[in-house]
Design brief:
globular; 16 helices
Length: about 300
């Protein structure tokens, strides 16, 4: 179970880290040609390339994965998003409790945790839905339906992550996930969270549904043109990170914490590390780039903050 991108793990030893400054610059130039938004941070002999990934894009989106693949083949190591470490017993428990996870508690209505105004907007969005089963769907499952059926979201490929995974495997570059979340913790969170914990998720999903499928393509176009603040401001992008897993009150902080620790570690490793992370995690207010900027690092790459 992956949270945002690939989770392959290579067992080969680190490559020789003795790249010249010119060679490092060549890697960075190649990566930028892909069209994926990226940032370069250097501390001493350590260079970190942060690539902002996007999950779910139109099939005909025009970008250059070959350039990012070429860059990946020349770095020392690759970092990818956290993975869920799920056992057979976790899957059995998930199947056993699927009704609890998938439906509202008895006697609870969506209006009870959304309030009258937001429930009216939900009713308007779902007005043409012939099947009334959505009324009993849990907030987690209802958010999936709103984003897929009303906002036009399709999971699809993880653009940068998939390109990096292919290249790293071919070039035998070590790939490591930044960490893991235990399967029993994931399932327990899905079971235990009350509906009101997901109210921000449903409100954001309603806004994305109101924006409609055009927002799905606009978000992808903004990504490939490096209009990072537009991606972050997208109702669809906001909803994806207000909902499970990053918006989960228990799991989300774990995922963010794993990234913070991994990035701090990468800036202490000699050579070039390429990290593929969800763009929003990097560029949102108070996110990774803001934190590095506040710490005094020079960050080379596209603007990520909205212009006041």
């Amino acid at each position: 179970m992956m949270f945002g991108s690939v989770g392959a793990r290579a067992q080969t030893p680190d490559a020789d880290p003795s790249l010249s400054t010119d060679a490092v610059e060549d890697v960075i130039v190649a990566a930028r040609r892909s069209g994926a938004p990226m940032w370069e941070i250097t501390r001493g002999d350590a260079t970190l390339i942060l690539v902002g990934d996007l999950n779910g894009t139109p099939d005909d989106l025009d970008w250059r994965p070959d350039a990012l693949e070429a860059a990946t083949a020349r770095v020392q190591r690759v970092m990818t998003p956290p993975a869920g470490r799920v056992s057979g017993s976790d899957f059995l428990r998930l199947i056993w409790r699927i009704r609890t996870i998938g439906t509202l508690p008895q006697g609870v209505d969506h209006a009870d945790y959304l309030g009258a105004d937001w429930n009216a907007r939900l009713e308007a969005v779902m007005a043409d839905e012939r099947n009334e089963t959505w009324r009993r769907r849990s907030p987690v499952m209802l958010s999936f339906d709103l984003l897929k059926d009303r906002a036009g979201y399709r999971r699809g490929d993880r653009l940068a992550g998939d390109a990096v995974r292919r290249a790293a495997r071919k070039a035998r570059i070590p790939v490591r996930s930044v960490g893991f979340v235990r399967g029993d913790e994931i399932i327990e969170s899905l079971i235990a969270q009350p509906p009101e914990a997901y109210a921000p998720c449903i409100r954001a999903s309603i806004e994305a549904a109101e924006a409609g499928p055009d927002g799905f393509r606009a978000r992808a176009e903004a990504w490939r043109r490096w209009r990072v603040a537009e991606v972050v401001a997208s109702p669809l992008d906001r909803a994806l990170f207000q909902c499970w897993p990053y918006g989960d009150p228990s799991i989300g902080p774990q995922l963010n914490g794993l990234w913070v620790e991994a990035i701090d570690g990468a800036l202490n490793e000699t050579g070039v590390t390429l990290a593929v992370a969800p763009l929003r995690l990097l560029a949102e207010s108070g996110g990774v780039l803001d934190r590095l900027d506040a710490a005094g690092f020079e960050i080379v790459g596209p603007a990520w903050k909205a212009v006041p």
